[in-house]
């Protein structure tokens, strides 16, 4: 087997290092009444989840900062850019470009395609159904999670609240000049914060996860910008056509650090 590594930092990769998986699934966590969660924090998170889940389509750009601790104990920050286009219930296109990967993920309602642009390779997984079902199938088959993918399920709230032990409403803050509610949540292994736009469009503007028990407490931070809740979508936007010279590979999986491992039979 020829094994190639297409490394793409993910939320899952950060929390796996501490032995916990941040659930992106549809099964709910413990109810807020069983946790020490500020009612206002819970209200804002529910409003954001309901609003996102109710959008028929949207697009967003993101800037991602992913901290790692190297073998010498030095903390390094890897920066990348990402874009996401969603058309519910069964289409999405995601692209992430950074120092470790230039990768797109396309779902056309039947097939998930992962395309490594720099390596000129791609792999496909049959996954007919909704976006939620496709991403769940991708996780089950490969262990791969999209960055901050927990925010983009049809109902983000249950996955976000899984394993949460406490939540606080920290008041009003500003993200890139936009007024936002600042929420902070805790679980046994990770802490996470989210900034949600105030007003009648409660969109996430910033999302930070801290692996608090890992040496150096590395963080994964995403800033969302250029939200479009009524995007114009071309008819072929979710159709993947392999460029000339790009090879289709057979199997793929993810290691514990969130590296996408794609293997080709010789």
From TrEMBL:
Sorted UniProt keywords: Protein transport, Signal, Transport
GO annotation (BP), single: protein transport
Organism lineage string: Bacteria, Pseudomonadati, Pseudomonadota, Gammaproteobacteria, Chromatiales
Pfam short name (any one): DUF2092
Quaternary data: Monomer.
Protein name: Outer membrane lipoprotein-sorting protein
Signal peptide: 1-32
Gene3D superfamilies on file: Lipoprotein localisation LolA/LolB/LppX
Taxonomic source organism: Thiocapsa roseopersicina
Cross-referenced InterPro entries: DUF2092, LolA/LolB/LppX
């Amino acid at each position: 087997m020829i094994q190639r590594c297409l490394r793409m930092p993910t939320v899952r990769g950060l929390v796996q290092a501490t032995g916990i998986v941040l659930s992106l699934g549809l099964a709910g966590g413990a109810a807020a009444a069983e946790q020490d969660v500020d009612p206002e924090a819970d209200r804002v998170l529910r409003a954001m989840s309901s609003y996102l889940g109710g959008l028929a389509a949207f697009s967003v750009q993101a800037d991602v900062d992913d901290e790692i601790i190297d073998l010498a104990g030095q903390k390094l920050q890897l920066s990348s850019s990402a874009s996401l286009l969603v058309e519910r219930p069964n289409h999405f296109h995601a692209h992430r470009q950074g120092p470790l990967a230039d990768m797109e993920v396309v779902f056309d309602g039947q097939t998930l395609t992962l395309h490594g642009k720099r390596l000129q390779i791609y792999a496909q997984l049959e996954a007919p159904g909704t976006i939620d079902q496709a991403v769940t199938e991708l996780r089950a088959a490969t262990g791969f999670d999209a960055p901050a993918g927990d925010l983009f399920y049809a109902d983000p709230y249950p996955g976000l609240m899984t394993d949460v032990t406490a939540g606080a409403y920290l008041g009003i803050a500003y993200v890139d000049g936009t007024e936002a509610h600042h929420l902070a949540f805790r679980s046994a292994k990770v802490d996470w914060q989210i900034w949600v736009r105030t007003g009648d469009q409660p969109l996430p503007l910033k999302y930070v996860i801290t692996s608090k028990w890992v040496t150096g407490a590395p963080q994964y931070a995403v800033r969302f910008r250029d939200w479009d809740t009524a995007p114009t979508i071309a008819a072929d936007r979710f159709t993947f056509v392999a460029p000339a010279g790009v090879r289709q590979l057979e199997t793929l999986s993810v290691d514990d650090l969130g590296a996408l491992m794609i293997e080709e039979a010789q």
